[in-house]
Amino acid sequence: MLAKAGRQPRKPRFARAPRPPAERDRLVQSRAEAEAAITEARKSHERLREAVDLLPQGIVILDPEGRYVLWNKQYSEIYSKTADLFAEGARLEDTLRVGVARGDYPEAAGHEDEWIAERLQKLYEPGKRHEQTLSDGRVILIEERRTDDGGVVGLRVDITELKQREASFRLLFDGNPVPMIVCALDDERILGVNDSAIAHYGYSRADFEKLKIRSLQAFDSEPPWTTDRSSEEQAARTWKHVKADGALIDLAIYSRELTYDERPAVLLALMDITERKRAEARLAFMAQHDGLTGLPNRNRLRQTMDEMLQHSRRGSEKVAVLMLGLDNFKAVNDTLGHAVGDKLLRGVAKRLRSTLREEDALARLNSDEFAIAQSGLTRPEDAVGLAKRLLEAIADPYLLDGHSVVIGASIGIAMAPGDGDESEKLLKSADMALSRAKLDARGTFAFFEAALDARAQSRRKIEVELRDAIQNDVLRPYYQPLVDLSSGRITGFEALVRWPHAERGMVSPAEFIPVAEETGLINPLGGLMLRRACLDAATWPDDVRVAVNLSPLQFRSGNLLSIVTDALKHSGLPPRRLELEITETLLLEKSAQVLATLHALRALGVRISMDDFGTGYSSLSYLRSFPFDKIKIDQSFVRDLGANREAQAIIRSIVSLGKGLGVIITAEGVETEAELSCLRTEGCDEGQGFLFSKARPNAEIISLLTAQRGIDAADEDAALVA
């Protein structure tokens, strides 16, 4: 319809009225804000996806219908075989069914529907974490939580390496021969034990799991992992546990914290060291006790004495040390054997212990010596009473293996603090007193005196200086002539050791030879003199011999034959010109080794002489045991021979014996013409003594031999003229 002329056009019947400008602006603004919110939401979603992609765990978010809303990259990698099915809005149940059909979940094989139903139940009714094994062997830990809108947030962690470590731990734990226990850190309850622990302790597995670690500990109130000690200190500590049968065992415990069945726990490795501790105790006992008698040894005695002395310093009481030595114990060993000797020592130890108080110390120091330390004494007479009781206790006969054995003893006594205020000093003082008691009269006791210490110090000084003299070749052989009594000619020389001392002059052999024998220096000293004598004698005329004394101790070294052989070889001296002198003391030992060495030396060509004949025991029997080349009559039979008819008869018998055996008889210590005349009358072959000459250095000996050679030449010329 057209509008009439002059009229305004009529509005359409249904036309909308135009919006006011302000409303239109608000609408445009709202639309822009909505679009901006949507854009921002998309950005937040992308940021959320980027954030969850950075997480090391797999993350999945499902809506209340179980449809995928969001998942991260790690989740896709864990379920890589079904990742192609992941899409927003896709149902988890569908992906599970496809995965089961593909064989991605080996645990579902044979009961697929049941497995899927169980899995979905865990999804919609989440509770504890659970594990899932995939077809490639990986193990996934699943933890899921419901959201406020009914959706699900799921966490996936690949725990394959953890499970492998757990399997390794289980293998090492269950099959380990060392008993192992796992305890909870919070309540100390035992969570697990291996088979070795069950076998070692005697508890069943069920019994173990009812106990706490303190239930096994015998004395300790704290568990073994709560100490502040270092691992080394912890391992060095000894714990005592109680087994099911009540037996105590010693343990070294090693601990390490871990997680066991999702609980903080500690693993205990229990090393049974009971036998080791017993062995250590035995070794410690042996280190401080005598193996034969079980008595303390010197070290243990010194410790006890130190305690006694420390206590005595706080008061006026004295400490007595008694050194007890058995008399002639060696004779018991030699005649009845070492088995009887050992039983005798045990019997002596038992009697000594029964005679003493409980607080008195008793120790065995060496083969036949014991020491007693007693405190609380007020005067020396108290020690005398104790010494007498000990001697009486020992004196009664011992019945051993059918033999009635009687043994005596001597005792040396030292008192603290007068004779020393230290244990070692007291023992030395008592030892010196014992030596005096044995020297004066066996079977008694003697107190230490300062003079004994002075003599001991002097002896020690001689030992030190003698050792130095041997090392620096200070000692010299001097030679005393051996004279043929029928012709007056020198047939040889005896080498006698001399010690020219820088301060003391010439030291007497009577001072240093006993020290050399006691300290073992006689071996290097004797070897030195033998070598020097052979070298000197090699420069003498061929018919002049040299005689060298041998100590019995040189035979015990076992290398005497080689020493003699080396000396002869080095000097070039013919063996027939060397004469070795031994005493009857050597043959007292009745040693097969000694006789074998003597025969070997004689087979070498060396002459063997018996020195000091008549002063020992059973001399005639020794002449049967070895074919000596010479017998030397001791000077005690030669002294005042001219006025002593008994001595003349003895000399006559010895000379007659020598002629019958075909050996040369030499008389020592000839000092007067009367003695020489008697010896010639009795037919003695050789003489030696100051009447002919004192011992002289080698330079003077050469002069003597030169003079004798001149006399021999003059006699030959006179014979030619005649």
From TrEMBL:
GGDEF domain location is: 317-450
For this entry, the protein name equals: EAL domain-containing protein
**Membrane-traversing stretches:** none
Instruction: Give the NCBIfam families listed for this entry.
Output: GGDEF (TIGR00254), sensory_box (TIGR00229)
Stretches assigned to the PAS domain: 44-80
Q: Where is the EAL domain?
A: 459-709
Q: Which Pfam families match?
A: EAL (PF00563), GGDEF (PF00990), PAS_7 (PF12860), PAS_8 (PF13188)
Q: Where is this region: Disordered?
A: 1-29
Question: Could you tell me where the Basic residues compositional bias lies?
Answer: 7-16
Give the InterPro entries listed for this entry: Biofilm_reg_signaling (IPR052155), EAL_dom (IPR001633), EAL_sf (IPR035919), GGDEF_dom (IPR000160), Nucleotide_cyclase (IPR029787), PAS (IPR000014), PAS-like_dom_sf (IPR035965), Rev_trsase/Diguanyl_cyclase (IPR043128)
* Listed SMART domains: EAL (SM00052), GGDEF (SM00267), PAS (SM00091)
Q: Report the superkingdom from the record.
A: Bacteria
